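hey team, just a heads up i'm posting the complex here instead of the shared drive bc the drive is being weird again. everything in one block, sequence lines first with there labels, then the predicted structure for the whole assembly after. its two chains so it's a bit long, scroll down
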Amino acid sequence: MNDTALYHVLSIKDLTVFRGAAKILDRVTLALAQGETLALVGESGAGKSTIATAIMRLLENARVTGSATLAGEGDLLTLSERKMVKLRGRRLAMIFQDAGTALNPSYTVGRQLSTTLQRIHGLSKSDARKQAIDLFTSVGINDPEGRMSAFPHQLSGGMQQRVMVAIALAGSPDLLLADEPTSALDVTIQAQIVRLILKLTRERGASCVFVLHDLALASQACDRIAVLYAGQVVESGPARDVLERHRHPYTKQLKSCVLEIGAKDLVAPEGTVPSHDQMPNGCRFCTRCPRAVARCADETPPLVPARPTATGPLDHHIACWNPE
Amino acid sequence: MLFKALGKIAQTCVVLFVVSVASFGLLKLAPGDPIQIMLGSEYSQESYDSLRSELGLDQPFLVQYADWAIQFVQGNWGTSYVARAEIFTYAFKEALPVTLTLASFSLVFAILVGVPLGVLSAIKKDTIFDAGSAVLALTGTAFPSFLLGILLIWFFAVKLQLFPVMGYVSPWENFWLGIYHMILPGLTLSTYFIAMITRLTRATLIEVLEQPYIAAARARGEPNWRVVWVHGVRNIAMPLVTILGLQLGVLLQGTVLTETVFNLPGVGQMLTSAVLGREYLVVQAGVMMTAVLFIGVNLLVDLSYPFLDPRLRTSK
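-- predicted structure starts here --
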């Protein structure tokens, strides 16, 4: 990867996560520039959320190796828990899949936001309240003052997720991890929330990792895309390149099953992701790959530039022995 | 809310009616003749009959019940032959406060010890500490309270002479002396509850700590103690209060043994001597007080749910 060209807020190197004997993430290497949005795309179980949770150091019952360096702080994976508590909410923030369960049912949403503001910025109760109302306004909650005293269950799913966004932004983090923030929402609300998160992170100059399973949405919303399959990055690069000039067979299948619904020759990936005890040693996609060759099953392909540097962008990479 | 509360109260009255009929009937079926006990071993048939009609025991069951019920709700609970006192004064004004003091002291003590122990076991899940607390809890549940009481008296009161052997001082009259007298009986009665609350707290908290809002609280940088005590423990209040309400029966049962061992003049002791002396009216009074207490507390538990869980509050 080209590390010198851009200032990287986050660079993940060889991030590997074991749960028992199963390797649920395999040498994931990614980098994220200041102000950039990166989409992690793939089927469920590909390890997208695991990456986000591992960076936050909120993974339980797992062994993590590799490194995830946050600019100015060092490797997040080896920092003390004390230091992590200080970083969470301030430099790193996370938005969860289902805001309905990620908000504490026993406290009003206003309280959950303003205690966060009080804690992070050392504000007084009344200042925190004022700032909470401002934040609620900026995430598009109507009647923000009235909503301060609402409990999570009294809000709609979209409103709940807006509250989560407000809480995540309370500490003005420079890295926001959004873990499928729209998968629990109605389709009409999904786009609103995605747009809201992108608008607010861009306004604040923050970088954002977006976990999505929709390649089309990812390509519209994000600067860069990393496609994951069974815990491995198979292709990563600028959104347009990955969507239109992809070279990995899995990216092609993922794209066709998203974009060509209704088309006659729908090519959904055949079969299922192998279970962890049957995972091939080499490329994990080889069991379902139409272009698999002999070495695919035994040797893991390295992440290499997708095209000769003269013709392609520097940061478009694939991991494939027999690319398209 | 008000409507719901009224409904609950009506329901309570029905339950109390059933309890009173059942206990009244059971006492009639129980072996032993109160008149024989009152008259002693030698009596004439005339005195037997006259006492029988004086007490109304020659009337049909339903008449007896109605007589008793009408008098009872008016506060005329009859006279105890053994205690030679108005049952209302004896049972309600003298015995009940003793039992209430013992029960509430034990419950508060059990919560103050059990909840923190349970929380620690939950956050130190699968460590030596957790295993140790599990063993203690099992011992606490299995250990017979009368034996524990006797052991405590032997060790702390007789050997070390730190605490009084027995007796009761009302904490309303002399607070610290009252508490001092409550420590050994309170400890005896609360052992089971400490164990139960510890296990219950542990189990429910472990479940709560797996909820996404706990991870979300950590993700916004809340320190561990806040995550556990503010976000975790707040959400185990409801199951805890529910179980405690239902276990109040066990607590009241426990007061009978504890009061006997420590010679506390409470409802338990009153019931024991009344059953042995076939004093139907005293037993009946004790049963009714216990039933009202049990149902009343569980009614309060029901009514407390909306305060414990905002999701149960009806929308404005």
